[in-house]
Amino acid sequence: MRHSTDDADPLQASRPAQFNRSLLGWVVVAVTLGVAAIVFTSRPEPAIGQTGPALTPAAPTPLPPPQEIEVTVGPYAPGAEIYVRSQSDLQLLDVSTRESTPSRRRLPVATPEAARQFIEATTGGHPIIGVHVSVGATGRGTLPNSLTRAQLARLCFPSSMKPPGIDVESLVVSPGRLVAAHMDLRGVCVEFVFTEPGAFVVGSRPTPIIPELADFYASTGGASTWGPCLTNGFFVTVGPGGRIIETDPGLGVYVQICANGVLGYHAQLAGSGYEIQPLLATSWVRGENGQYVGPDPPARATGAGRYFRQTGHNLSGALLTTFQALGGASVLGYPITEALPGPPGFTDQHFQHLKLRLNNATSEVTIRPIGREFIAMLAANRQAGSESR
After folding, report:
1. How many CA atoms within 13 Å lie on the side-chain side of 55?
2. How far apart, in whole angstroms, are the C-alpha atoms of residue 11 and residue 20?
């Protein structure tokens, strides 16, 4: 008896279809496992210089701290200057002088000899920063402590270290030869050539007296009284905490700092005869943290010499003679201290505008340079102001 297809066993009929579906399922599983194996076992090659995979972006290069000093030294070829960082033995120097206290922004290693050499070479300029280059850094020549060829040094420092009233055009290097100086976003950079290793100091050369002060400067003794001028003209005012600070052009008093004192032009008093007045510089530089202190407490009249009731102090002997020879109170202002012990063998006396020093052995009296102290005080006040904001 024949069976029709309709009478066939349904289980028998579905076996090929079940097999096909099972086979397809296993294929899908196999493909899935293969893809997973590729994904989880394949890793990118690490990139040279990175700690993570090549797809991990490199860590950004950190910006240098604002007070970082950068120095490069390389062979010098005129017309083809190339700055190549060398393995030079470089040491940064503090070039503050004995007349001033180094501010926090200055460098920690004291080198008064380098500062002294610079000041002598520039006739009263203001030292800013220094660098020491050793002979082993750039090669040894045929003679001891000599170089095989001239070297070009590039020294960069934050613009905040540039004293107020000093332009890059007035920068100099001693004893090297300045090639160029400029300011950029990183700060101030100077390039200079040297042929012998040693300490090189960057500073500013004396500047001409500004026109507003020229007549007064000349009529009160000029450089013999005030010394060479250390800055161009700029504006100052009294800021928070009683500190004298730089201010925007047109505000405050227009001043120029000379080696021995500070001259000021008061535009609002023009035509009155009082528009030019020396600043009370000694009261500022004697103050704690750059604050104005004024005269010492009044003293009793000694009966010797002359007693100034305006400030309550005595003046006698060679100090009085020099005071009168220099023009008296119109130039020096009134005494704001009694005669005080100075360095061994010397006596100091402060006036409103200038400072005198007496050699006890010879009775010679000289004007002491307080201009660099005033510049250092302004720089410290600038830093204190930026930290308080």
Report:
1. 2
2. 15
Indicate the residue type of 24: L
pTM for the full model? 0.72
Distant-in-sequence, close-in-space partners of 313: CB < 8 Å, separation ≥ 6:
295, 296, 298, 299, 307, 334, 335, 336, 337, 338
Over residues 256-271, the pLDDT tens digits come to 999 999 999 999 999 8
Residue 40: which pLDDT band, with cuts at 50, 70 and 90?
very low
Domain boundaries, the chain: 70-204, 206-389
CA distance 13 to 207: 112
Q: Enumerate long-range contacts of 112-116, CB under 8 Å, 24 or more apart.
A: 113/199, 114/199, 114/201, 115/201
What pLDDT is attached to residue 309? Answer: 96
E strand or H helix that includes residue 181 = strand 177-184
* Token code pair at residue 284: 């500022």
Q: Contact 164/246 with Cβ under 8 angstroms?
A: yes
| Residue from 282, 304, 277 nearest 295 by CA | 282
pLDDT, tens digit, 9 for 90 and up, residues 86-106:
444 566 666 654 444 333 333
User: Closest Cα partner for 360 from 373, 371, 376, 344?
Assistant: 344
The dihedral over CA atoms of 326, 329, 335, 336, expressed in degrees to the nearest 10, equals -130
The model's pLDDT over 359-375, given as tens digits with 9 standing for 90+, comes to 999 999 999 999 988 98
Please report the sign of the dihedral spanned by the C-alpha atoms of residue 109, residue 113, residue 116, residue 121: negative
Name the H helices within the chain. Answer: 10-41, 112-122, 135-138, 211-219, 223-226, 281-285, 317-325, 329-332, 371-388
Q: If you search the block for the tokens 């960057």, which residue do you land on? A: 202
Token pair in block for residue 99? 């007349």
CA 78, CA 389: separation in Å to the nearest integer? 45
What is the largest distance, in Å, between two alpha-carbon atoms of the chain? 160
Q: Do residues 202 and 171 make contact, with C-beta atoms less than 8 angstroms apart?
A: yes
Nearest to 321 by CA among 355, 281, 363: 363
First to last CA, the chain: 110
Closest among 264, 163, 250, 284 to 216, alpha carbons compared: 264
